[in-house]
Amino acid sequence: MKKLIKRVILAFLTLTLYFQLSFANTFFPDMSNHWGQEYVSWVTEEMDLLEGFEDGSFRPNEIITRGEFLIALNNLLYSMKRYHDIDFTIVMDELPYQDLQDNTMLFNHVKEIQTYIEQSSYTNIKLEDIFVGDKFQLNKPINRYESALLVRAVMTPPVENIRHHYSDLSSDIPFYYEIMEVINNGIMRGYNDGTIRPSREVTRAEAATLLYRVHRDLMYLKENYLDFQPIKGEEIEKKLPLFQLTGDEDEDQLFINAITSLEYISFVGYIPRNESHLYDTEPTKTLWQLKNQNYGNLIGNNYYLILYDKGTGIERKDELVREGLLYLNEEIKYEDIYKIDGLYKFLRIAKQYVDDEEIIMLAEDYYQSASNEAYKVRAGLFIANEYLELNETKAVIDYYREMLSMEMELSIKKQLIKNYAYLISQEKGNPTAVDELLVMRKNTVEDGDNSGELEELRKLYTGIIKQLIMER
Fold first, then answer.
1. What keywords tag this UniProt record (predicted)?
2. Residue 359, phi-psi category: left (phi > 0), alpha (psi -120 to 50), beta (remainder)
3. Of all helices (H) and strands (E), which one includes residue 468?
4. Would you list the DSSP string of 322-342?
5. Neighbours of 312 (CB within 10 A)
6. Which of 123, 136, 184, 434 might form a disulfide with 158, Cβ 3.0–4.6 angstroms?
7. Terminal Cα-to-Cα distance of the chain (whole angstroms)
8. pLDDT confidence tier of residue 203, bands split at 50, 70 and 90
9. Cα 466–chain centre separation
């Protein structure tokens, strides 16, 4: 009997899970195969901005009222914490609507939206411009014109202002350009017959779509796209730098064992006796032996002696640095010198012994001669940071601009774009920065690649441009 009960329970749970998976996106029977299924699912299940009816339907083709749409939009603003910086102690204009009683739910929503628009909107639209007259008429269907203006009052500005032509939309109507901005932001679209139908009532499915697109747009406010952070070469060279190996297997292995042991000692403090057979117990002595044998990995060998040999005085370390720099100058014409892992770290340690002009000149020679983009970027980042310390902003911008055409890790490229945008805006002003970034964004879009990486870059450019436009 117990086995039978267990089987029944298991069958019930399996069947329940099956139906949950099968109908997760068709919770409302009348949304099955509807064009707005994705948006309705988002607005009801994920965000809880709109609800279905008691009979289990959503009724996507029914109209939505002014009150319903405004409340849903206001709740969206709250869910995205857009009221965080709103000061409700500031007395705003009185609501002009006689049919809204104080302290009712709808009154509060309308008052909050009004306050938000007056304090945070990036447009001159006022609430009474959208819902004209002395009555709000909460149960009146909202039309596309009203919903577009309400959306425009809370959304971010578009990155481009393109005039679209619709046979039923005259440029003489109030807030024509604001309607264009909603369209340019991709929040509202026209119909295939070349109309926009501003007087058409908005359906519940269309309202869900508008709310989804407003949410997507307001996400650009969640991140600081103008966050300047100097990019250190160590962020690229995260692995243990071996510098170049020579091909002499015996000497290379001695070198690797020595630096591995030095890293282990620096981390643990000592080599345990029971592990001594796994490490070089006298790693700096080994490095000096390799040096005396003219080991070919001169840059790597000198770097670790400078860094770890505590018995070497400043003058001798200065000699090791200059020997490495001379080697780079003499060997710059050889292709293998372009592929020195850890070059950035060697240049950083050399800074302690060589003046700024000399170290920059050396790095610039390397940068100009190198053909391998990955190593060229490392040198470029070093040079840019050196010029940052010298407040040579123009030189930094030039290096950033050139490096942006090179291949690098996505995280590095995204920060590089942010830094470039910040410096351009500081140096030449936001309008110039916007114009230049629009060109860069267009070139990225025109690459024709729909990969996730390029999509992230397009989104980044859009976010930066929007924030530059919104800065007051």
1. Repeat
2. alpha
3. helix 452-470
4. HHHHHHHHHHTTSGGGGG-TT
5. 15
6. 184
7. 75
8. very high
9. 13
**102-158 confidence digits (pLDDT tens):** 878 899 999 999 999 999 999 999 999 999 999 999 999 999 999 999 999 999 999
Looking at CATH, the fold of the domain delimited by 326-470 is given as 1.25.40
Report CA 96 to chain centroid distance, whole Å: 41
Angstrom distance (rounded) from CA 389 to CA 382: 11
Q: Per the structure block, which two tokens stand in for 196?
A: 């926009």
**Amino acid present at 140:** K
Q: How many helices (H) and strands (E) does the chain have?
A: 19, 0
Total residues found in the chain within this entry = 472
Q: What would the two tokens of residue 242 be?
A: 């071996």
- Domain extent listing, the chain: 39-221, 326-470
Report d(CA 49, CA 67) in Å as an integer.
13
Beta-bridge mates of residue 143: 201
**What confidence tens digit (pLDDT) does each residue in 173-183 have?**
999 999 999 99
Rama region for 451: left / alpha / beta (φ>0; ψ in -120 to 50; rest): beta
Distance CA 281, CA 264 (A): 11
Cα–Cα distance measured from residue 229 to residue 418, given in angstroms and rounded to the nearest whole number: 8
